[in-house]
Design goal:
- The structure is a single chain.
- This protein is mostly helical and 311 residues long.
- It has one domain: Rhopdopsin 7-helix transmembrane proteins (Up-down Bundle).
- Helices cover 74% and strands 3% of the residues.
- Strands 2-1-3 form a 3-stranded mixed sheet.
- The radius of gyration is 21 Å and the shape is globular.
- The N and C termini lie far apart (68 Å).
C-alpha cells in the first residue's frame, strides 16, 4: 500500500514551556541518561568479563535485559534532551515511524525476555539441583532469540498498518516521543479498527503477560512454602528484584495501552517513566541488591587497580 501523506514532519509539544524548568529537566535527564548508559554497560561488562558469573545462567539474561533497556532509552531520551533547547520540537514523518518501530521492538522483546527470566527463576527455586542442566546455553540463547522474535513480530504487526496512514494535519503530538496511539489520532482517516488492533496487540498482551508472571511467582512461592516454610523468606528475597522490574515495566505499558487515558499530563509522566526511570532503576536493582554482582564489581575494581603501573 502506498503512503499518501502530505505531512513530512510532526511537532512535539514537550513537557513544559518554561525556560527555567527546561534547563532543570535537561540536567535531570542528562544525568539520568548518563547513569543509564554507565549502569547497564557495567552490568554487561561484568557478565562478559567475570567468569564467576558464567556459572549462573540468570546473569546472561540480566545482561540482555540491560542491553534492551539501554537501547530502548537511547531511542527516546537523546531526542527528548535536545528538544528541550528547541522552540520548535520537530521530527520527520519517517523518523517518527522509525521511533515507533524501535520502541515497540525493544518493548516487545523486553516483555518476552521477562517471561524467560521468570522461567529461569522457577527452575532455580523449584528445581535447584537441576538448574544448570535445564537452563543450559542452548535454552538461554534460544530464549533470548525468541524474545527478539516476539518483539519483531509485535512491532511489524502494527507498523504494517501504521506506515500506510495518511497524514494531512494537524501534526501536533502532545508528548515527548512518537507513540502509536497519539500518531494514529492525527491520521486523516478512520482508525477505529487499528485502535482495536493496538489495544489487543499491546494492551491485552501486556496485561495477560503481566498476570501470567504474577501467577508464576505465586506458584513458585506456594511450591517453596509447601516444601519448606523457612525457605519462603529466601524465595521472596530472590524474587523481589524480578517482581520490581516486572512491575516497573508493565505498569506504564498497561496504563498507556490497556486503559488509554484522556489525561495528557499522565501520558507524559508515563512516557518519561517508561523511557528514563525504568532503565535507570534496573541496574540499581540488579547490581546494588545482588551480592554476586557487587562481588564481581569489587573483583574487577581490585584487578584494574592492581594492574596500574607503579610510578
Amino acid at each position: 500500500m502506498k503512503n499518501i501523506s502530505v505531512l513530512n514532519e510532526f511537532i512535539f509539544l514537550g513537557l513544559t514551556n518554561s525556560w527555567e524548568l527546561e534547563i532543570f529537566l535537561f540536567v535531570i535527564f542528562f544525568l539520568a541518561y548518563t547513569s543509564i548508559l554507565a549502569g547497564n554497560s557495567l552490568i554487561i561488562l561484568m557478565v562478559v568479563l567475570d567468569t564467576h558469573l558464567h556459572s549462573t545462567p540468570m546473569y546472561f539474561l540480566v545482561a540482555n535485559l540491560s542491553f534492551i533497556d539501554m537501547t530502548l532509552s537511547t531511542v527516546i531520551v537523546p531526542k527528548m534532551i535536545t528538544d528541550l533547547f528547541r522552540e520548535k520540537k520537530t521530527i520527520s514523518l519517517w523518523g517518527c515511524m522509525a521511533q515507533i518501530f524501535f520502541v515497540h521492538l525493544f518493548g516487545g522483546s523486553e516483555a518476552a525476555l521477562l517471561v524467560v527470566m521468570a522461567v529461569d527463576r522457577y527452575v532455580a527455586i523449584c528445581k535447584p539441583l537441576h538448574y544448570t542442566t535445564i537452563m543450559n546455553w542452548r535454552i538461554l540463547v534460544g530464549g533470548v532469540l525468541l524474545s527478539w522474535f516476539v518483539g519483531f513480530v509485535h512491532t511489524m504487526s502494527q507498523m504494517a498498518f501504521a506506515v500506510t496512514l495518511p497524514f494531512c494535519g494537524p501534526n501536533m503530538i502532545d508528548d515527548v516521543f512518537c507513540d502509536l496511539p497519539l500518531v494514529m489520532s492525527l491520521a486523516c482517516t478512520e482508525t477505529y479498527i487499528l485502535d482495536l488492533l493496538v489495544i489487543a496487540d499491546s494492551g491485552l498482551l501486556s496485561l495477560i503477560c503481566f498476570l501470567l508472571l504474577l501467577v508464576s511467582y505465586s506458584v513458585i512461592l506456594l511450591t517453596v512454602h509447601r516444601h519448606s516454610s523457612g525457605g519462603l523468606s529466601k524465595a521472596l528475597s530472590t524474587l523481589s528484584a524480578h517482581i520490581t522490574v516486572v512491575t516497573l515495566f508493565f505498569g506504564p505499558v498497561i496504563l498507556i495501552y490497556a486503559w488509554p487515558s484522556s489525561s495528557y499530563v499522565l501520558d507524559k509522566f508515563l512516557s518519561v517513566f517508561f523511557s528514563v526511570i525504568t532503565p535507570l532503576l534496573n541496574p540499581i536493582i540488579y547490581s546494588l541488591r545482588n551480592q554476586k554482582m557487587k562481588a564481581a564489581i569489587i573483583r574487577m575494581r581490585s584487578q584494574y587497580i592492581s594492574s596500574w603501573p607503579v610510578l
